[in-house]
Amino acid sequence: MTNHWVDIKNADLVLIMGGNAAECHPCGYKWVEEAKAHRKAKLIVVDPRFTRSAAMADLYVPIRAGTDIAFLGGVMNYLLANDAIHHDYVANYTDFSFIVREDFAFNEGLYSGYDPAKHKYDKSSWDYERGEDGFVKADPTLQHPRCVYNLLKQHYSRYTPELVEKICGSPKDKFLEACKLIAATSSPTSAMTIMYALGWTQHSIGSQIIRAGAMLQLLLGNIGVAGGGMNALRGHSNIQGLTDLGLMSNLLTGYLTLPNQAEQDYATYLTPRAQKPLRPNQMSYWQNYGRFYVSLMKAWWGNAATAENSWCYDYLPKLDKTYDMLQVYELMGSGKMNGYICQGFNPIASSPHKAKMTASFSKLKFLVVMDPLATETAEFWNHYDEYNEVDPSTIETEVFRLPTSCFAEEDGALVSSGRWLQWHWKGAEPPGEAKTDIEIMAALYMRLRDLYKAEGGAFPDPIVNLAWPYARPGHPTAEELAKEYSGKALADVMDPKDPTKVIRKAGEQLAGFAELRDDGSTSCGCWIYSGAWSEAGNLMARRDNSDPSGIGQTRNWAWAWPANRRVLYNRASCDVNGKPFNPALKLISWNGKTWGGVDVPDFKADEDPAGGMGPFIMTPEGVARFFARGGMSDGPFPEHYEPFETPLGYNPLWGKGKGQVQNPAARIFDDDRKALGQADAFPHVATTYRLTEHFHFWTKHVRIAAILQPQQFVEIGEALAKEIGVKAGDNVKVSSKRGQIKAVAVVTKRIKPLTIDGRTVHTVGVPIHWGFKGVARAGYLANTLTPFVGDANTQTPEFKAFLVKVERA
Amino acid sequence: MALQSLDIRRRSATTTPAPMVRDGATPDVAKLIDTTKCIGCKACQAACMEWNDLRDDIGKNTGVYDNPLDLSGQSWTVMRFAEYENEKGDLEWLIRKDGCMHCEDPGCLKACPAPGAIVQYANGIVDFHEENCIGCGYCIAGCPFNVPRISKKDQKAYKCTLCSDRVAVGLEPACVKTCPTGAITFGTKERMQSDAAERVEQLKTRGFANAGLYDPAGVGGTHVMYVLHHADRPGLYSGLPADPKVSPLVRVWKGATKPLALGALVLAAVFGFVNYVRTGPKEVEPEDELAAQREKEQIHG
Asked: H helices within A727-775, ranges in order?
C-alpha cells in the first residue's frame, strides 16, 4: 500500500477492483464502511462476480475476467477526453511533458523492439530524448507530438466506452456512471482510493493492470494524498514482509536486486542501480544504493566483507535467468532440480497445473517440507481417492517432514499491507516436536557449515564465512534478528556536514537509513526496515493508538517502513509551493524552513520547494512515470491483451485475425503452450478466488472454519445452470485442458452471462480452499485446472482467467 | 447458569412474583444488527461457537453460501443469504444474521410448561435454562421467528443467550466483539435505537428510501434489532416476518395445563385447514416467494 488501512477512512470514493476486500480482508474493509458512514464516500466494485464487496457497493459493474486494462484504459480515456485530470499535479509531478524518443513505436499491439523468437523486447527505444546537458527533454506546453501526454492520449483514445463494453462486457451506462464518480476525484480536495489484490496480479498482464490503476490515480492526483493511493491488499499476514526481506529469487532485502550474469564486478552492478538524476536538482534516492548494499553485506558476512573484496560481491549468485516458481518447477520436471526445501508453502496446492506439479515433484530425489500442517505437498505421493490419483509405488521421492510452529507460537514482527511492522508475542508453545522455522534453519545451517569446514568444496566461503553472531547459535531469537535487520553502527558514524561530530557511536542501533554508510562502518540487514529497532528500543512493539492528527495517522502505533512514514509520496499532497492541496486532510507542508506535519515527509526535510525537486524521489526524474521506460518487460503503456486462454480467440481491439492477441512477453514454456485449451472445447471463463470462511489451504484443517464452509463448490449463473441442466446443490464436473474437478454447484444470480463482442460468455467461479488433507470434506485442488502461464514481469501465474467446461456430473 | 447479578423479570410456568427491590436499576439492553454493514463473513458464527463451546457437524454444501444451513442445538446463529433483484434490475445480496430476537414479550417463555426453563432477565435478555427443559418443543411453537431448536443429543431446547454470561460481567456478546465491520453493536436499547435512527437517516440519503429499524411491536419490541435497507419488506431478508405476533393460542395457553395446550395445537391445525379451504391459498408476494424458496432449499439439504 502507498497508504495504510486506517487511511481508507479518508477516501471520498473507494474503487475495489481486482480484489474483494469485504470477503478476503474483512477487518481492513471496515475502513471503507467508516468512509461511507463519516465522509459519505461512495464504493464502486468492478468484478466478474457480484461478491461480498459488491453487496456493499453503491455501484457494481460486472467485467469479464482478465479485461481490466481495457476498463481502466477506458476510464483514462474518459478523463483525458473530458479534461477531468488534476492539472497542477500531472504538470509538475509526472512525466507528462517529457519527450519520448523518435524510434519508439506501437503497431497492432506490439511495441518497438520485439524479438518474436525470444518472446522478449529490446527496450532501448522505450526512453526519453536527452538534451545536450544530459537531462531529459521536456515541453511544458505539452504541444510536442511525442511528449508523454500526447502519446498517452493517443494510446488510450482507442479505449472508447463502446470498446470497453465490447471487450469487458461491462454495460456502457454502468461504465460511464463509474467514470463520472471517478472523474469527480480529480478535484484537489477529493480523493479516491484503489483497493486491489490478486484479482489484478494473477494474470499474464497482471503487472500492467496494476500500472494502469496507478496511472489512473496519477491523472487524478490521488497518489501521495490522504484517502488516496494504490493499495495492494496482501493475502497472507506477512507476505508484505516476505517481499520486503527479499524472498524472491531475484531480490535481496529492501528491493535491492541480485546481479545478473553480465554483472561480474561490483561497479558494473552498482552503476545502473544508483542512477544519476535525469532532470536538474532531483534527488534520485537510489543513488544511495551502495550504502544499502554494503550495510547488507556487512550484516550477512561481517568481517569477511571488506572494501577489497567489494563487500563479498563474489558471494552473490549471478542470475542467468529468473528463477520464479514456474521456472523452478519446469526445471524440476525436466530432471534438472533434484532436491527441494519447501518452507511455509504448499506448492502442489498453490501452483498451477497440478498434474504437471505432481509429475515434477515425482522426479525429486528428496523433498523437505517445513510446515505446521500435513500439507498436500507433503502427501503428494499418497493416493487419496479421486482427489489425488497417484500410484505411490512409482514415486521414489523421499519426503522429510519437519513440523514447525505456527505464527501464534512465536515472537516477531508481521508486516501488514500498510507497511506496518507490528511486533507480536507468542500465545502458546508449539505442540509436540514442532520447532520454530528459525531453529530448524539454524540447525540446518550449522550442520552444512560443519560439512563445508570439514570437507571443503567448490566454493565454501559464503557458507563458512556467514556472520552468525547469535548468543545461542542454534537458537537465534526474533529480537536478535530484528536488531540485525534494523541495523547498527560498527564504527563511529560521523555527521556528513561536520566530520568531527559523531552522530552514532559504534555498537549503537541506527536511527534510520540516513545513517547508513558505504564504507563498512554500518551493518543493516534490510535498509527499508532501518530504525525499526533503534536506541529507543523496539518501535514495532508500540501500542499507542492516540491520533493527534485526527486522520488516523497514529504514528506511535507499531512502526511503518520506511522511516515510520505512513503515506508514501506525501510531498505530492502539496502544491509546488508546499501548501496542501486539501488543507482538511493535511499530511505535511513547507513552513518556509522545513517540511513537517502529521507524517514523516517523503522528501528532503529542508528542501525549499522553489528548487523544483520532484516528489517522487525514488525515480531519477523526480516525477512519476506514465511512460514506464524500461521498467516493464511488456511495454511502457498498459495495453489490453486477452488471457492465454481466451474465450474469443482474438483481441477485439484489432479484430479477428489481426493484431497481437496475448501478452507477447508473458512467461510460458513450450510444453505448457500445448496444454492450453481452446474455446470450442472449453467455452466457459473460470476464475479462482478465496472465500471469507477460509484462508487458503490452511483452515480446512480447522473445525470451525470447516463447519462454516464444509464442502467444495463452484459458482455458476442461473443462465449457465439452465443451459447445462443443473440446479443448486447438484454435482458438476469442471474440466480444463489440464484436468478436471467435481464439486457442488452454487447456482446464483450473482454471476451473469456477459455479452462479449456479440457472443454470450459465462463465468465460472472456482473457490480454491479444498484439498485432500484436513477436516473439511475432501475435495480437489482447484489448481488442477489452472494454466502454467505467468505475468511478463513477476511471472505470477494466470489463476484469474482461464477456460473450462462445466457439465452435469 | 444462575447469573445472580441479574434479576429475573419473568420465569416460565411460574406464578411467584418477580423481585422488585432493584426494579428499574437495570436498563433494557439491545443488540443492533445493521444488515447494511454486514458482509456475511460469518465471524459472528465462529465467535458464537468459540464462546459457547459449540461445534456443529461438518455439513454439506447444498448449493448456497449458508452454512450451517439452519439453526440447531449447536448453531445458535447463522447467516442467511438472499439474492434480490430490485426495481431497477440491480442485484442486492441481503445478508441477515439469524438467531433469537429476544422479544420483550417472549412467546417461547409464555408457551413453556417447564418451570424455570425459560427466563427473562431484568435487562430484557431471554435465556433458556436447559437443566429445567423437558424437551416438549412448545417454545418452538411459541416463537414467531422459528428460532429454538431441540438438540438431538439431549432433547433439550437451545438458542442464543445473547451471551447473558458475558453481559452479566460487563462484556458485550461474543458476536458483537468479533464483528469486523461494526455491523453488530450492543448497548442500552435506547442508545441502539438512537444509533439506528442516525444510520437510517444516512441510508435514506444513499438511496434507500425505505430504510428503517426492525423492532416489531407485535412482540413488544425486541432486544435484537435490525437496520434494514428495505424495512417496508422484511420478508426479503430470508423470510423475516413482517409483523410477528405471539400466537393467540399461546396467550390462551399461558397458565393452562398441558393437555389443553395440546388441544389448542390440534385446534390450530384444524383452524389452519379450515381457513385454507375457505379462503384458498394466500396471494404470493415476492418476499413470500423468497422465503418459500429458502424453505425448499433447506428441506432439499
From this structure: none
Selected for mutation to probe chain B from A49, A704, A730 (highest B CB count within 10 Å) is A704
CB atoms B39 and A52 under 8 Å? yes
8 A C-beta contact, residue A434 and residue A404: yes
Judge whether A744 and A713 are in contact, CB under 8 Å: yes
A89 and A216 fall within a common domain: yes
Among the partner-chain residues B40, B57, B61, the one whose CB lies closest to the CB of A744 is: B61
- CATH number for A335: 3.40.50.740
**A695 and A802 within one domain:** yes
Query: Cα–Cα distance between A399 and A362 in angstroms, integer?
Result: 11
pLDDT recorded at residue B24: 81
Per-residue model confidence (pLDDT) at position B301 = 38
Yes or no, beta carbons of A744 and B62 under 8 Å apart: yes
The complex's ipTM? Answer: 0.95
Of B221, B14, B239, the closest CA to residue B109 belongs to B14
pLDDT tens readout for residues B197-231: 999 999 999 999 999 999 999 999 999 999 999 99
Is A682 a member of any domain?
Answer: yes
In this predicted model, what pLDDT tens digit does every residue of A301-335 receive, in sequence order? 999 999 999 999 999 999 999 999 999 999 999 99
What is the distance between the alpha carbons of residues B225 and B237, in angstroms, rounded to a whole number?
Answer: 13
| pLDDT score recorded for residue B292 | 57
Counted domains in chain A: 4
Task: Assess contact for B124 and B102: CB atoms under 8 A.
Answer: yes
Distances (CA, A) of A510 to A289, A293, A519, A531: 17, 16, 15, 6
CA trace torsion A348, A766, B64, B66 (10° rounding)? 50
Q: Averaged in consecutive runs of 10 residues, what is the pLDDT profile of chain A (809 residues)?
A: 98 98 96 97 98 98 98 98 98 98 98 97 98 97 98 98 98 98 98 98 98 98 98 92 94 98 98 97 98 98 98 97 95 97 96 98 98 97 97 97 96 97 97 96 97 96 98 98 98 94 98 98 98 98 97 97 98 98 98 98 97 97 98 98 98 97 97 97 98 96 98 98 98 98 98 97 98 98 98 97 97
A436, A440, A445, A447 alpha-carbon torsion, rounded to 10°: 140
Range of the domain at A353: 325-463
- For residue B68, cis peptide bond before it (omega within 30 degrees of 0): yes
Distances (CA, A) of B59 to A24, B170, B210: 23, 35, 37
DSSP A117: T
Residues A207 and A334 in one domain: no
- Of the candidates A604, A576, A608, the residue with the CA atom closest to the CA atom of residue A591: A608
At residue B271, the pLDDT reads 57
DSSP reduced 3-state for A513? helix
Is A56 in CB contact (< 8 Å) with chain B?
Answer: yes
Which pLDDT belongs to residue B4?
A: 45
* CATH code assigned at A198: 3.40.228.10
Chain B residues with CB inside 8 Å of A694's CB? none
Residues A152 and A265 in one domain: no
User: Do both A176 and A32 map to the same domain?
Assistant: yes
| CATH number where A785 lies | 2.40.40.20
Query: For A16-67, what is each residue's pLDDT tens digit?
Result: 999 999 999 999 999 999 999 999 999 999 999 999 999 999 999 999 999 9
Is some CB atom of chain B closer than 8 A to the CB atom of A744? yes
Q: What is the DSSP string of A715-737?
A: EEEHHHHHHHT--TT-EEEEEET
